[in-house]
Design brief:
The complex is a heterodimer of chains A (110) and B (112).
Chain A: E1 9-13, E2 18-23, E3 33-38, E4 45-50, E5 53-56, E6 61-64, E7 70-75, E8 84-90, E9 104-109
Parallel strand pairs in A: 1-9
Antiparallel strand pairs in A: 2-7, 3-4, 3-8, 5-6, 6-7, 8-9
Chain B: E1 4-6, E2 10-13, E3 19-21, E4 23-25, E5 31-38, E6 42-49, E7 56-57, E8 64-70, E9 73-78, E10 87-94, E11 102-103, E12 107-111
Parallel strand pairs in B: 2-12
Antiparallel strand pairs in B: 1-4, 3-9, 5-6, 5-10, 6-7, 8-9, 10-11, 10-12
The chains are: A mainly beta (110), B mainly beta (112).
């Protein structure tokens, strides 16, 4: 199982770009990397998923280097509503466990 | 729209009671998961299931069991509730290999 390591917390101001990096040194060949966002008293929700290079959707970008041992979630121009806990999860074959790390608490101030 | 529903948002039980936490999904998901979440500890996997009547232990299965008699329903059972099982419990489902997890909104269980 690929273990993930993220910073415990990050602070930012509205309008800035935020980059959260996740380390996953023993990622397997078939594993995807998925990021989730969680607000208080809610379940995590999917943000973005990728396998290699770069993926972009309407809310974020995901950068994955060639060796895939880390990944970076990029949130452009954050707002107060982006204050949340962000988790990176390294996928696995169907039928096996999905283990989360402790996540990164992002605090956005005005 | 995808949906994972947990039957109770808040639950208060007494020590020693048998507790059932129910989770239903309407997405024909193969895989279902139960996590608990505590401050500072993140999401910890209790049990998961990749098919009907199949179950596998996660990181912290002690004191819990699960039941999956039908594909859409995955139940978490606390055989004899204890105060250290006071926590937020989150159920999730996913379909095919590497597809994202879909979570319910959680059940906040208090054991007194």
């Amino acid at each position: 199982l690929a273990k993930t390591t993220q910073p415990i917390s990050m602070d930012s101001y509205e309008g800035q770009e935020v980059n959260i990096t996740c380390s996953h040194n023993n990622i397997a060949t078939n594993d995807y990397i998925t990021w989730y966002q969680q607000f208080p008293s809610q379940g995590p929700r999917f943000i973005i998923q990728g396998y290699k290079t770069k993926v972009t959707n309407e809310v974020a970008s995901l950068f994955i280097p060639a060796d895939r041992k880390s990944s970076t979630l990029s949130l452009p121009r954050v707002s107060l509503s982006d204050t949340a806990v962000y988790y990176c999860l390294v996928g696995d074959q169907a039928g096996t466990a999905l283990i989360f790390g402790k996540g990164t608490t992002l605090s956005v101030s005005s | 729209d995808v949906k994972v529903t947990q039957s109770s948002r808040y639950l208060v039980k007494r020590t020693g009671e048998k507790v059932f936490l129910e989770c239903v999904q309407d997405m024909d998901h193969e895989n279902m998961f139960w996590y608990r979440q505590d401050p500072g500890l993140g999401l910890r996997l209790i049990y998961f299931s990749y098919d009907v009547k199949m179950k596998e232990k996660g990181d912290i299965p002690e004191g819990y069991s699960v039941s999956r008699e039908k594909k859409e329903r995955f139940s978490l059972i606390l055989e004899s509730a204890s105060t250290n099982q006071t926590s937020m419990y989150l159920c999730a489902g996913r379909g095919s290999y590497n597809s994202p997890l879909h979570f319910g909104n959680g059940t906040r269980l208090t054991v007194t």
